[in-house]
């Protein structure tokens, strides 16, 4: 398993090395001293950094973001573990912030994948500083899969707000495993579902352990609910509108009474719905984003089913019981599962 994108090793001789390239050897040397273990492919490895598992390029990107990402109070972060609703939240936050800038036919979401519009601080920010959204100082939206405890210090110091989304671990695992099946990889075939599931349960997955990732952001939310909005994918899927309104309010872009009357909330929700995005030409077939040099996934890979409970089609009752038991054990006494019921 590698990152969402291939890291260009060296630019052509005539181009100035990027800030990341100037520091890359230092990161590689440091990472060589960290614990490595077998990944989800025979030739791929996972690397442990402060209790979290990374693939090499994304760990280099994380170290770079920790050192160089300068968050501003006006910035807003979309935080998540992989395959928990990131693409949807990127679309929603972009549509909320820019709803007065575009009419129905000119919204960039109609022509570009949400990942092009909201960059990862451990990916585009590090590896592709030339893309429009990184160069645009007017952009305030960024995203990350980095665990809360490893976020760049500038994020806490700036006081910028963030939203975190989590998802039932059973569906998270299935979404991740099927996503990696669509990856163009030189690291050999993906492990079987059973072997990958066992590794996921033991915590060895990209940005894992997954349950620790969720718990870290949950504790941060409890300590500072004004800075972090904590969302559950399943609840948003069941009834998106109140959450779209809450998200906009939290971001400082609340809908006016006039907008609500005109159906703007519904418009935003519909534009960003799984069904709308999946069926756009830009997100169909083998189309890939064109703003970066090399891509491992077609845009369509980000829109598989988006449904709740698809794990029933893949996991045995015993597998489901194992991961449910781990979740209840991990979250016991934290108030997280109660929040899920009451919210």
TrEMBL record:
<feature type="compositionally biased region" description="Basic and acidic residues">
    <location>
        <begin position="11"/>
        <end position="21"/>
    </location>
</feature>
<protein>
    <recommendedName>
        <fullName>Sulfotransferase</fullName>
        <ecNumber>2.8.2.-</ecNumber>
    </recommendedName>
</protein>
<dbReference type="GO" id="GO:0008146">
    <property type="term" value="F:sulfotransferase activity"/>
</dbReference>
<feature type="domain" description="Sulfotransferase">
    <location>
        <begin position="74"/>
        <end position="335"/>
    </location>
</feature>
<dbReference type="InterPro" id="IPR000863">
    <property type="entry name" value="Sulfotransferase_dom"/>
</dbReference>
<dbReference type="GO" id="GO:0005737">
    <property type="term" value="C:cytoplasm"/>
</dbReference>
<keyword id="KW-0963">Cytoplasm</keyword>
<feature type="region of interest" description="Disordered">
    <location>
        <begin position="1"/>
        <end position="21"/>
    </location>
</feature>
<dbReference type="Pfam" id="PF00685">
    <property type="entry name" value="Sulfotransfer_1"/>
</dbReference>
<keyword id="KW-0808">Transferase</keyword>
<comment type="similarity">
    <text>Belongs to the sulfotransferase 1 family.</text>
</comment>
